[in-house]
C-alpha cells in the first residue's frame, strides 16, 4: 500500500496524464510545489514498486496498478470536496481540508461518505430544509 506521500504523487500523475496525456517531472514538481529532484526520487521509488514506468528524460507511464490507484485517489479527493461543499464548508477552505483528511480515512469511511453524499444529493430538498431548521435554531 502506498504511503500518503506516494498517494499524492500518484494522484497528481494520474490527473496530469488524464488532463494533458502525459506527466513530466517538471509538471509534477510545479503542481505539488516541490523540487524536481524530490519528484525524481519519488518517481524512481514508484517505478521500483511497479506503480509506474519511468525513463529519464522521457514521460512517465502508469502501470495498470498505478492507474487503478491513481483513479481511486482522484475519486476520493473529489468525493471529499463534494462532501465538504454539501455540508457547507466555505469554498476557500475545502482544498486544504481535503488535503488534511484524505490520507487519514479508511476506504470503508470513504465508501460511507460516498453513500451519504449520494443520499444527500438524492434528497436535496429535505437536506436543505434540515439546514434551514438548524440555522434557525442556532440563531435563537
From TrEMBL:
Q: Tell me which residues bind Mn(2+) 2.
A: 11, 77, 99, 102
Which family does the entry's similarity section mention?
Belongs to the DtxR/MntR family.
Annotated control of activity: DNA binding is strongly activated by Mn(2+).
**Where, per UniProt, does this protein localize?**
Cytoplasm
**GO terms under cellular component:** cytoplasm
Protein name as it appears in the record: HTH-type transcriptional regulator MntR
Tell me which UniProt keywords the record has, alphabetically. Answer: Activator, Cytoplasm, DNA-binding, Manganese, Metal-binding, Repressor, Transcription, Transcription regulation
Originating species: Schinkia azotoformans LMG 9581
- Top-level division of the source organism's lineage: Bacteria
The Gene Ontology biological process terms listed for this entry are: intracellular manganese ion homeostasis
- SMART domains recorded: HTH_DTXR
Q: What does this protein do?
A: Central regulator of manganese homeostasis.
Q: Which residues form the HTH dtxR-type domain?
A: 1-63
**Gene that encodes it:** mntR
- Could you give a GO molecular-function term held by this entry? DNA-binding transcription factor activity
Looking at the Swiss-Prot or TrEMBL record, what is one Pfam family this protein matches?
Answer: Fe_dep_repr_C
**Which InterPro entries does the record cross-reference, listed alphabetically?**
DtxR_MntR_Metal-Reg, Fe_dep_repressor, Fe_dep_repressor_sf, HTH_DTXR, HTH_tscrpt_reg_MntR, Iron_dep_repressor, WH-like_DNA-bd_sf, WH_DNA-bd_sf
Give the main location. cytoplasm
For binding Mn(2+) 1, which residues are annotated in this chain's numbering?
8, 99, 102-103
Q: Which Gene3D superfamilies match?
A: Iron dependent repressor, metal binding and dimerisation domain, Winged helix-like DNA-binding domain superfamily/Winged helix DNA-binding domain
How would you summarize the oligomeric state and partners of this protein?
Homodimer.
Q: Does the keyword Manganese apply?
A: yes
